[in-house]
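hi support,

uploading two proteins for the ticket. first:
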Amino acid sequence: MEHAEARASLRVLVADLDGTLLGGSAEQRRLLRTELHRHPEIMVTFATGRSLSSVREVLRDSLVPRPRWIIADVGASVVDGNDLTCDLALQGRLRSGWPGAASVRVALSGFTALTYQQRVDQDGRCSFYLKPQHLTAELIAAVEELGCSWVYSDGRYFDVLPPGAGKGAALSLLAAKQGWPLQSVLVAGDSLNDHSMLTLGTHAVVVSNAEPALQERVPAGSLVQHADQEGAGGILAAMRRLGWVSGNHRLVIGYHRPPVRWTGTGWQAPVSPNGILPVLRKVSASTRDAVWAAATVTDADGRGRSAPLDGRGTGLPLALLPLSSTDWSAYFHRACKETLWPVLMSRPDLMRFDEHSWARYQEVNARFARHMAAHAAHGATIWLHDYNLWLAPALLRRARPDLRIGLFHHTPFPPPDVFAALPTAGLVRAGLSGLDWAGFHTDTYAGNFRLAMSASPRIPRTGVHPLGIDRPAIEQLARVRAAVHSAADAARGTTDATRSPLVLSVERLDYAKAPVEKVEALHRLLARHRELRGRLRFRLVCPPPEPGIRAYEATRRLLEQRIGAVNAAWGTADWQPVDYRPYSATFTEVVDHFLQADVLWVTSHADGMNLTAKEYVAARHAVGLPGVLILSRHTGAATQLGTVALLTDPGDCDDLARTLHQALALPVEEQREHLEHLAALLERRTPDEWAAHVIADIRREPVPPGLTSPAPA
C-alpha cells in the first residue's frame, strides 16, 4: 500500500540541458532551481547529448539542480546521479549491436560533408557536424547498412547511435526499471534529438526557443504543452500548469498591455499620473508578492528590437507573454476593437465580426489564462482588467479552482439587448461566469452586467468603485505651471480682457468620443452667433490610436475632412476656429491646456469614467481659476459630477451647440462658483486606496444565502 502511494505521488522531471534546462534568463533558471529545491519530491533526470565528462562541468553551475539520473550521449549512456557511475545493465541493452565509433567513421569516410566532432567526448555514439543539404538518402542508407540508428538536430548535429539507443529508448528502459508511471513524468526539450522522448505518452513541454521542426512534429495537445517562455522558464511554467509547484505571487494583475511601453531601445513610462496603467503600476511595484501579466508583441523582422521578455529595465515585476504581430493584430485590432468595442459603446451597427479574428481572441485568452495560472501562488488573487480578457476567467477557474478571480471593467457595460447582439455572447457569458467578482464605475453598468448574466448558472458578485485621480499631484503641477504662465503673460502684456475664449477637448481619436459631432456642433454655433466669429477657439488635442485599427482610421479621415471644411468656411487670415493637434502630449502639456481653457468639452457617446473631466476641475481649482465643464450624460463621470456640470447629448449636434453656447455665456463669477461646486464633488480617495478597496472586494468571502451582503466600498 505504501509503495503504491509513493508511486502515485512520484514526480519525475526529465529535461534536456542545452537550450532547455540551461536555457532562458538567469532569473528564470534561478526560479526553477529554487522551486526544485523547495520540492525535493520532484526527481530530476538529465537527458542530454553531452558526455558524462561534459555533464560534470555543467554540475559546477550553482543554478543547475542535482540530477538523480543522467541520460547522456544522446541516449547511449545511463548514469546514476548520486555517484556518477554507469548503469551497465541498461547501457548494455542500449548499446547492443554497436559496431564501435572507429568502424562508423571508416564506413562513412566517403561522405566528405561529414565533419567529426573532434573536441567532443563521445561514448557509445559517433557524432558529426553536417549541413542540412547534405543529409541525403545515401548517407542514411549507409548508416542503416551498419545496423545503426541516427538523429539529426539543430540543423547541424548528426549523431550515429547503436540501433536501440536514443533518448526515448533510454528513458523507457529507465522508467520501467524504476517503476515510474508515465503520468508522473514531465519531459522537456528543444531539439529534434529530444523528439523520441517527447512522444512516449508522458507529460511533455516544448520550450518556446525550440527548433521549429520539433514544434511541428510534436503538436500541442492534452499531454504536450508548447511553452510561452524559453528554457527554464518554460519548464517552470509547465510544472505550474501540472500543479507540481505553485507560483509565488499572491496577486496577479492581468491586463493586455504592460504599464510601460517598449520603444525599441528602452522602456517608457506613462506620461500621466492618472488612468489605470499608472495606478496598477504603483500597485505592482509596491506590493511585495504581486506580478503584472501582460502581452508584448515580438518583433517579426528579426533585428532584435522586441522587448526583453524578463521586463528588465522596468523596475517592475512583469510576466510578459510574447505574441506575434499577426496574432496581436487579429486579437486586438480586429476582435477587441472591431467586434467587442462597438458593443461596449452601444454601437452594434459598427461591429465587424470574422471567425479568424475571434479564433485568435480565444487563443490569446487561453494563453493568458495559462500564463497567469503559472505565476499564481495557491489561493492567489487574479485581478483582470477589461473586455480584452473576457474568456480567461472560466479557463482559470477550470485549471485553478483555488484562485480568487475578479475583473474590473474600465469601460461601460452595455444594456443586455445590446450585449446580446454580439455573435459570441454565449461564449462570453460562459467566460465571465468563472469570475468571483466583477467591478464597475457606476451602478448602471453593474446592473447591465447582472442582467446580461442573469441566465448563467454562476453569477459573479458585483461592486461599484468609481476611479478617481491623483489630486495632490495634479494640484502641485498646476501651481507650478500657473506661475510659469503668469510670468509669460506679464511679459507679453496679456490680460483676461484681451484673451479670446478657448474651448478644449483632450481625448484619444475614437468615434466613441464624438469628435466629428463636436466639429459639426461648432459649425452650427458659428452660423448662429456672429459675435463668436473671429474670437472663439476650439482646441482639439487628439492623440492618434495604435496603427492598424480600421474604424479609427476612418474616423480620422472624416474628422480631418470636417475640420478642413469648417476652418475654410469660417476662418480668416489670422484666425481658425478649430486648432487640431493630432499628437500625444505630455501630462505637463495637458495641464498647460487645462490652465488656458475656459471650457472643457467632453462629449463621449459612452465612457467608463473620463478622468480628464476630473483633472480639468482639479487643475483650475488649485490655482483659483474659473472654468466650465460640459459633460456628456453618457460618461461615468456624469454620475458624480452631473448635478453641477452642464450635461449634453452627443447624439444631438444642436444640443451640443446650445450647451456650448450656454457655457460661453456664463459670467466669470458664475464660472468660478460652478468650478468650486465641481471641486467639492471630487472624491478624496487616492487611486492607490481605490485599488486596495477593489482587491479587498475581490478577496472578500461570499455572503451565505439569507444574510445581508456588505455594501460595496
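and the second one:
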Amino acid sequence: MRFKKHTLIFTAAVTLTVACSSGGTKTEPGDSAKEPEESDKDRQIKITAMKFGYGELPPNDSPGVQMINERFNVDYQVNQVPVGSYSEKLSAVLASGTIPDMVAFEAPDISNRYPKFARQNAFLALDDYIDDYPSLALVPDFIWDQFRVDGKIYAIPKYYPRFSFLPMIRKDWLDNLGLEVPTNYEELKQVAIAFTKGDPDGNGKNDTYGIALGQNINPNYNLGAYWDPNAWYHKNDKGQFIPGWISEARKEMIEWFADLYEENAVTRDFASLDWNATNKEFYSGKAGIFIGTPRGMINANADSLVQLDPNAEFTFMAPAVAPDGSQGLTSSSGFVGFMTISAEAGKDEEKVRRILEMTELARTVIPEDRMNPDNPDFDFLMGGEGKAYDMVDGKPVAKENALKDGLRPTSYLLDDVPWPEKDSDKVYKYSNPILDAVVQDMLKVHGESKFYGSPHYAAPSPTYLEKGNELTQFLIDEQSKMIAGQRPVSDWDKMVDEFMKKGGDKWIEEVNAGITIQDPKEAWD
C-alpha cells in the first residue's frame, strides 16, 4: 500500500493478535515428535529479506527495524529496492543462486519466475504450515491453487479483495424521472435512454446521457461472471472453456452497447477517452451511470460533483440473475503480490517459524475498536503511541515523519495487508457522505454474494504470456468498431476465426490443459 507523507488517519483494518503457533520441530511422517531445545527458541536468528517499495524508501537502520528485532529476537536485514528497478534486481538475485530468506514478488511473477524457480527447488514448500496460521488458513482454495507448482505451494499471497465493480447510478436522476433501480440489462438500457432523453437533472437542457464509457470498452459493465469478458465461464462446441471475450454472452453485450450508441445513450467518443476523462463524464454531471467499488474510490471526484449539484446521490445495481440461473461476480485473482521463503531458510525450522510469526502478525485483522495503544499488537505495528502516531479524537493519526524515518515496523514487513475472513469485513471509509453511503451498501451486497473463481487463473498459458495482450487488444478493437457501427455485429464469427488464427486456439488449448473442473458451477464459492 502506498502512503502519502502527510498525516494519515487510519481507518482501514490492520492486524490483530499474532497467532502464536508452536515453535516445535517439524516432523515428517514416521518421525518421533520432539520439543525444541529452549536454547533454540531463545537464540537470535538472522533473517534476510528483499522487498520493493514506492517513493522515498525509509532507512534500513531505523526504530521500526529495531522493534522487529526486539519483538521476534531476530537480526532482520531487509534490502529495499525502488519498484521501478525491482524486476531487474530480482532477476539478478535469483540467477545468483543465493537468495534472501524472504523475497517479495509482484503479481505477474506468478506466471514466469515463480514456477521456474520453484521447480529449481529455490523455495520452501509451505503446505504443511498453512493450517498452523489462521491468516493462511483463511485463503480460499482457488487462490492457493494458483500457487501450486507440481502440486506444492511455495508462496504466501498478499490480500486483494475478490469483489470488483458494480454499475453506480445517479439515484437523484432516477427519482426525478420516477424510475426504479434496474435489475437487468434491458432495464439498465431503458434507464440509460431515459437519462439521455428525459432531462433527469431538470435544467431544461439536452445535456445529459446514460452510460459513461471509455477506451478499450472500459468499464465493461458486466452484471456477473456470465457476462464478464475476462472470465472463462462459457464453453465452445468442443467442450473447452473459452475467454468471455468471444462468448455468445459477450456478443449480446456488444449488441447492447451498439443499441445504446445508436440512441446516443453511451459516450460517443468512448474509443479515445482515457480513464480520467471517463471519470469526468460521470463526476461532471454529464453521464448518469458509471461504476463503483468499495476499494480505491476518490473522494475528490464525488466532492466535485456535489459542488456542481448538491442534490446528487448514488445508488447501484446488484449482480443480475444470468440465463443459467447463476448470480454473482467473477472473483479477482484474490492477491496483489506474494512472498516466498527460501529452501535454504527452510533447513532451520525455528527460522521458518519466526518468519511465519512475523508474517502472521501483520496479516491478522484488528477491529476498529481495537486500533488503539491498549492493543499491544496494534501499538507495535504502528510504531508506538507518541513515537510514530498519536490518538486524536479516538483515532490513530500517523506522525508526519513516521514513514520517512522508518518508525513503523509495517514499513519493513513483506506482507502488511490483513487477510479478512470475508471481504466485507474490511473497513472502507470515505469523507464524502454520498460516496461513503453507497460504498457501505455495496459492501453488504458483496458480503452476501457468491464469487466465481475463474479456472483460468490456475492454468498458465505460454501463448498468453507471449501474445495475450495482443490477442485481447485485437478483440477489443474489433468490438469497439461494432459498437460504433464501423463493423457489423454479424461479423462476430469472422472476428472469432481471426482471433483463433492469431494464436487464440493455442491459448485456449493451453488453458484447458490446466483446468481441473468440468462445469463452471464447480467454481462458485
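thanks. also noticed: The radius of gyration is 25 Å.
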